[in-house]
Specification:
By secondary structure, the protein is an alpha+beta fold. It has 13 helices and twelve strands. The chain has a twelve-stranded antiparallel sheet with strand order 4-5-6-7-3-2-1-8-9-10-12-11, sandwiched between helices.
């Protein structure tokens, strides 16, 4: 049971890493060379830009992340064994989504600095001690060697995770082994990414590598998801794609660009968005009379001014550090 708890601590440590690991934004652009050929959506996060920002330092975010890791002895023990500090060694996290309805189609790419021998030793140890949880797969790499892929069966889940330690700078993971093996072939140079969807290829070039968070998604990928609400489907059918970026320093700047299929669709979407903002502003204005704490939110909503040009709707939102501080004060117990 103790060993299983240790394995759970590894998962917890990696989960924390996903939410709190830094990156050198200028080194790794959102268009990763390991993306699957059928990539449709890309999401990247570069937490170092967040932790190094004046805003994060001002509110103790970086210190809180460090203390969070240090507060769990088991996590600290495992990280020490791996010679891995998620706050300094993980440089970029990229999610490639290849289908809006099939969770197996996709890949997660970790880039950073990994003590690969210690990682492999720990992974092999887990496979030996927890055979019902970790399985090792060996596949020819086509170059006289072998790819090693670890299959992790999480308790209570029917969806396994396949993980491979590609080299000292790259770890890849996915719900389907084929996607992981394909990425490994690209690491060795046996294959290169050739995006099938030319619209997606063009869309990815519009991602700004300096953003702390960047998202590029064709609307069709989302609309194909049967779980998408009917009202959202209606809006998505009028769109071609959405590009979002978040920049963080002493303030937070959000950039959103929506491209519609036709100019008339863009006009209709802009009208709906403007009406929604106006309705929300009116409602908050009434509530703020009795709840002064809502005033920062009201000021924020008032600052949103969508810009319409042909088939494009642009929304730029700047949240000042002072406004964020006021909001934080209001939500603190």
């Amino acid at each position: 049971m103790f060993a299983l708890r240790r394995f759970g601590a590894v998962v917890l440590a990696l989960t924390f890493v996903l939410a709190a690991a830094p990156v050198r934004a200028e080194e790794q652009p959102p268009v990763d060379k390991l993306l699957p050929n059928d990539t449709e959506m890309v999401f990247t996060i570069k937490p170092k830009a967040i932790f190094d920002s004046q805003l994060a330092k001002r509110h103790g975010v970086t210190d809180a992340a460090k203390q969070g890791l240090e507060s769990i002895d088991e996590v600290q023990s495992i990280l020490k064994e791996l010679n891995f500090n998620p706050l300094t060694d993980l440089e970029q996290l990229t999610f490639a989504i290849c289908s809006g309805s099939d969770p197996d189609k996709g890949l997660v790419i970790f880039r950073g600095k990994f003590d690969i021998e210690k990682f492999r030793t720990k992974a092999d140890e887990a496979a030996k001690d927890h055979k019902d949880v970790v399985t090792v797969h060996m596949s020819p790499d086509g170059m006289g060697g072998q790819h090693t892929v670890y299959e992790i069966a999480f308790p209570g889940s029917n969806q396994p995770l396949f993980v491979s330690l590609a080299n000292k700078n790259i770890i890849v993971a996915g719900a389907a082994k084929d996607y992981v093996l394909d990425a490994l072939d690209k690491v060795t140079g046996k294959k290169t990414t050739q995006l099938k969807n030319k619209d997606t290829a063009e869309l990815l070039t519009r991602l700004d590598p300096k953003m702390a968070v960047a998202v590029a998604m064709p609307a069709k990928t989302l609309s194909d998801n049967p779980q998408m609400p009917a009202q959202a489907q209606e809006f998505l059918k009028k769109m071609t794609d959405v590009v979002l970026g978040v920049e963080i320093d002493k303030d937070v700047k959000v950039h959103v660009v929506v491209t519609a299929k036709k100019a008339a669709d863009a006009m209709a979407l802009n009208q709906s968005l403007t009406q929604g903002i106006n309705t929300g502003t009116a409602l908050l204005s009434l509530l703020a009379n009795n709840e002064p704490g809502l005033q920062p939110v009201l000021d924020l909503l008032k600052s949103i001014r969508p810009k319409l040009k042909d088939r494009t709707i642009m929304v730029e939102l700047e949240i000042s550090g002072d406004t964020i501080e006021k909001l934080l004060k209001e939500i603190k117990p």
